[in-house]
Design goal:
Elements lengths: L1 H10 L10 E2 L10 H8 L4 E2 L15 H10 L5 H4 L5 H13 L13 H4 L17 H4 L6 H21 L4 H7 L23 H10 L9 H18 L4
Helix pairs in contact: 1-2, 10-11
Length: 239
């Protein structure tokens, strides 16, 4: 409701024929999906957001989910305006590139395996026009041959990732949450998101894990590690 109220207030000064209002909300309190809808109902033009809900912190508004919610509200323009026939696979690939893994979380709201497993007939996504039916009928319009090729690519990428794990052990330590028994030297204060974290945060994480001397310059260390991470991501790690 706050996003809707702010949108109405902004729209009273900035007319729709001259100005565009886009909304972005961060996760953590559950407003990241509802806020853009409230704002749109109050006169906003859409979202300023990434395609998928996963982000460097705890999630954010996602363009794919926003558009799907509009379809759910019988908006007649979304599927005419946007080419979402391969939306699920695009979301999968974006997650893999951002999180540096082929493992899609089971609780992903659109493409996760856990969300796709039937627990009650009311949630059957294969029933025409029922909740989540669009995930396969609208957002994954591939031929059987294309589906086979995609499945083979996923299998090969997962195999390659498994082979690379030993090589990437250092990066896995850098990107993994520290457990409760390692609450020393600030280890739990930082964590690395490979495509997002800046050099200073990367350097601080390396120092916290005592991989370099504490007197080392965090920014300089981070710049060197970032170069290695991004270089390995481009040459050896699975996309």
């Amino acid at each position: 409701s706050d996003y809707g109220a702010v949108t109405k207030w902004l729209r009273s000064f900035f007319s729709m024929d001259r100005f565009v209002i886009l909304v972005h909300a961060h996760g953590g309190k559950g407003v990241e999906n509802q806020a853009p809808l409230d704002a749109a109902m109050a006169g906003a033009d859409g979202v300023w957001a990434g395609f998928i809900p996963q982000a460097a912190q705890v999630g954010h508004s996602a363009a794919f989910l926003f558009l799907d919610n509009l379809v759910d509200e019988a908006n007649p323009y979304v599927l005419e305006t946007y080419q979402l026939g391969q939306g699920v696979e695009v979301a999968n690939q974006m997650y893999k590139l951002n999180m540096n893994t082929n493992g899609i979380p089971s609780d992903d709201p659109l493409v996760g395996e856990g969300a796709n497993k039937l627990r009650h007939s009311a949630f059957d996504k294969h029933k025409e026009k029922e909740w989540r039916s669009r995930c396969e009928s609208t957002y994954a319009t591939w031929t059987e041959e294309e589906q086979f090729k995609l499945a083979q690519l996923r299998h090969d990428a997962s195999e390659h990732e498994a082979q690379c794990k030993a090589v990437c052990a250092v990066f896995q330590v850098l990107c993994r949450e520290a457990g409760p028994s390692t609450d020393v030297a600030g280890r739990r204060k930082t964590i690395i998101a490979p495509l997002v974290s800046d050099a200073f945060v990367i350097g601080q994480r390396v120092k916290a894990l005592e991989l370099v001397e504490q007197r080392a310059n965090a920014k300089q260390v981070g710049e060197k590690i970032a170069g290695i991470i991004h270089g390995a991501h481009g040459r050896r790690l699975p996309h």
